[in-house]
Amino acid sequence: MGNALVDVLTILKSDRTLKEFGLPKGSMQLVSKEFSNRLLAGTLGLQKKQSSGGSAANTIHGLAHLGMETGFVGKIGKDNLGRFFEKDLKENNITPVMFHDLEETGRSVALVSKDSERTMATYLGAAGDLHQEDVDSDIFKGYKYFHLEGYLVQSRDLITKAVRVAKSHDLIISLDMATFNIVSENRDFLEKLIRDYVDILMANESEAEALTNKKNYKALDAMADMAEVAVMKMGKNGSMIKRGSEKYQIGIEKVKPIDTTGAGDLYAAGFLYGYCNEQALEVCGKIGTILGGHVTEVIGAKMDEEKWAVVKEEVSNICCD
Domains of the chain (ranges plus CATH)? Predict the structure, then answer.
């Protein structure tokens, strides 16, 4: 479950566009519908590529490509972008559980400079209107795992009801944290939610620090005290995983990165794939590293079939009989 967004990848001819719209290079900002519309109109003649996006959607795409039976819960508008999002899920063997809203479908306009730096302007739109009233038991029937993104903390009633209903159906719950500022603003709420419902907790270093007020191993220890499994993603420094007395340091994948977008989301996909297949935690981390590493070799959070063939071969070498 997550924010159903369409990523509109836009290749800039120069950074003048960023200055014209007052967007700091390399930043990610939430913007209004009006601003997003002006930005789309102002970049109309530039090369564009669309893909379904959002943290949880990126993760579920990764799991689907690895052959897992998956579904996605979100809210879209009754518009072309909404139809595109839902069609994209179906074409990638993801069962859509989509609610529809009068608001326009959320989109994230990703402006890519010539040096590959990405500047993102995100309008949540209908995605931000997913509410607790949309959640019922039928959503979870037939599933064993429930993955959600921390950005949903924007609606505390929604995220609380979702994990409560999921747990009532005995689903294993994984949570991938949102950015550090969102974690800081909701720290007490998130800690209680995690302790009460979350089985697998994932965060990068800054998010882990915001949640625990600790760093490095101490942050990992604090996370593992809240949830059964704790995963800390550390970019070029690999990742760390802890469950009880088990603790693992996972290295990095040897790749040629050009864009880190989606690396954390695809790491989560790989880790969960291993976990769902009852692999050792160290193997789960290595699979996450394979996916998270290779997605940095492409622009955007989606890999083509040629890249996925490489990924699947590497994964098959260590998992899963």
Answer: 54-105+125-316 (3.40.1190.20)
